[in-house]
Every structure is written in C-alpha cells, then in structure tokens.
Amino acid sequence: MNILYISISGNTRGFVKKLAAFATEQHEKDASLPLVHLKEIHENSDFEKETKPFFVFVPTYLEGGNGIDSGDQEILTETMREYLEYQENHALCLGVVGSGNKNFNYQYCLTAKQYAEQFGFPMVEDYELRGTPTDVERIYHALVQRYRA
To answer: Which segments constitute the Flavodoxin-like domain (predicted)?
Structure first.
C-alpha cells in the first residue's frame, strides 16, 4: 500500500513512519494485510508519473484568516498539489488523510478537504498534530478497507 506524503514540521513524517511500523507488525501476524511503502514529496523532488494506486497524507498550513471567507490559501504544501497534477497522478489516488490542529476549528484539515474537492477523491481520515497510537491503528484499518475495495 503506497503512501505519498509531505511533511513541513516533521509531524506528518513521524505519523506515517509509525503507520508503516504498525503495518509491518500487522503483516507479520497476518500476511494478507498490506505493508506500507512511503514516498516523501518535497520541493526538491523529481516529479514522476505514478503507476500504482496510492494514498496522500497532508498537513494543514494556511495563510492567515479564518478558513471560510478569508485565509483559506494553502501555503507550504503546494508541492504536493503540483505533484498530483503532474501527468494526472491524482487519477491513481485512493484518498487523502489530513492532519491539523483542532484549535483552528474550520481550518482543521482544510488542506485535505480542498484536495478531495479539487481532485475528486475522498478524504479518508484525519488526525490531530502527531497523532496517537489509536489514530495509527484506526487510520491503517481505514486505508486497508479502502485499498481492498
């Protein structure tokens, strides 16, 4: 199961690494459960045509405002949007998982919501900041269910 992600502060990177470790543990118990393969996208990434289905993980960084009528402009994660646009990579995306800070109310996971709307794939799950072990387990199982569908 392939995961593309972008990480600015390290929270998303830390979460997907925990997710990959959890997947390995689950796969060792039940070989029918998929392993997780990670690919970080950043501003220096060489863009390439994706050939296998994947999920996207994005944090939320917005330019000020309240996320409703002002300040819903994505910043810092734009490279992932460009990667998804590159040679129609978004067509292989099975869904997006967003992270954010619940203190920001409507802006919580707004980047993931915007990706889902723009590209037409579902927002599969969300988690706050670095996530918890419960989030890792919940999100892994949600991804597996969608991956197998």
So the answer is: 1-149
Yes or no: say if 127 and 99 are a contact pair by the CB < 8 Å rule: yes
Angle of helix 110-119 versus helix 78-85 axis, rounded to 10: 20
C-alpha closest to that of 143 among 102, 95, 85: 95
Which class for 88: exposed (0-12), middle (13-18), buried (19 or more C-beta within 10 A)?
A: exposed
Q: What was the pLDDT predicted at 101?
A: 85
In DSSP terms, 126 is beta-bridged to 98
Domains of the chain: 2-148 (3.40.50.360)
- pLDDT tens-digit series, residues 65-88: 555 565 555 555 789 999 999 999
Report pLDDT for 107: 78
What is the value of pTM for the model shown? 0.90
